[in-house]
């Protein structure tokens, strides 16, 4: 049975980049959570309309299923998902051997990075709403907290080292 690592955080933390690099380093399957959104969800977010829980839960179930399918084949999976609320993390982790990597970032740095992105569906106006609903992980949630205000190389190295030590090499599989 494989393990699932969910790389989480607000927009602009580098979730996709870090998750791809982590998946490559540990030989896991990379799953871009944003690619699993419905067209309706994407259109709402592109228009600056925050998703409601009724929009999110079907998507979270799809993300959960994608990880479980990989794990059932004995493969590790690395999924990107903002996972801003504990209830969302609980839904993602259901029936999964799941661990979270929380990329923690300041609002100022998040805004700066989102403003610099080209071709992404998430407008800068959504950053504020993400910080408003963010429930940071608490001890006992199987979460590694990484400060992501640093260079990408530093963050990827830190994430890879800590996932190996705390999840893969610890017998958590």
Automatic annotation (TrEMBL):
<dbReference type="InterPro" id="IPR027417">
    <property type="entry name" value="P-loop_NTPase"/>
</dbReference>
<comment type="pathway">
    <text>Carbohydrate acid metabolism.</text>
</comment>
<keyword id="KW-0067">ATP-binding</keyword>
<dbReference type="Pfam" id="PF13671">
    <property type="entry name" value="AAA_33"/>
</dbReference>
<dbReference type="InterPro" id="IPR006001">
    <property type="entry name" value="Therm_gnt_kin"/>
</dbReference>
<keyword id="KW-0547">Nucleotide-binding</keyword>
<comment type="similarity">
    <text>Belongs to the gluconokinase GntK/GntV family.</text>
</comment>
<keyword id="KW-0418">Kinase</keyword>
<keyword id="KW-0808">Transferase</keyword>
<protein>
    <recommendedName>
        <fullName>Gluconokinase</fullName>
        <ecNumber>2.7.1.12</ecNumber>
    </recommendedName>
</protein>
């Amino acid at each position: 049975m494989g393990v699932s690592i969910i790389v989480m955080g607000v927009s602009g933390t580098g979730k996709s980049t870090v998750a791809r690099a982590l998946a490559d380093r540990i030989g896991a399957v990379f799953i871009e959570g944003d690619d699993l959104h419905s067209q309706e969800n994407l259109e709402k977010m592109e228009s600056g309309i925050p998703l409601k829980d009724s929009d999110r839960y079907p998507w979270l179930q799809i993300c959960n299923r994608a990880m479980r399918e990989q794990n059932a084949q004995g493969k590790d999976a690395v999924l990107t998902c903002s996972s801003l609320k504990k209830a969302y993390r609980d839904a993602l982790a259901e029936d999964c051997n799941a661990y979270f990597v929380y990329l923690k970032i300041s609002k100022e740095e998040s805004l700066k990075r989102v403003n610099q992105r080209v071709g992404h569906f998430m407008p800068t106006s959504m950053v504020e709403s993400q910080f408003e609903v963010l429930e940071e992980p608490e001890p006992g949630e199987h979460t590694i907290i990484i400060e992501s205000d640093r260079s990408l190389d530093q963050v990827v190295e830190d994430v890879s080292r800590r996932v190996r030590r705390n999840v893969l090499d610890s017998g958590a599989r």
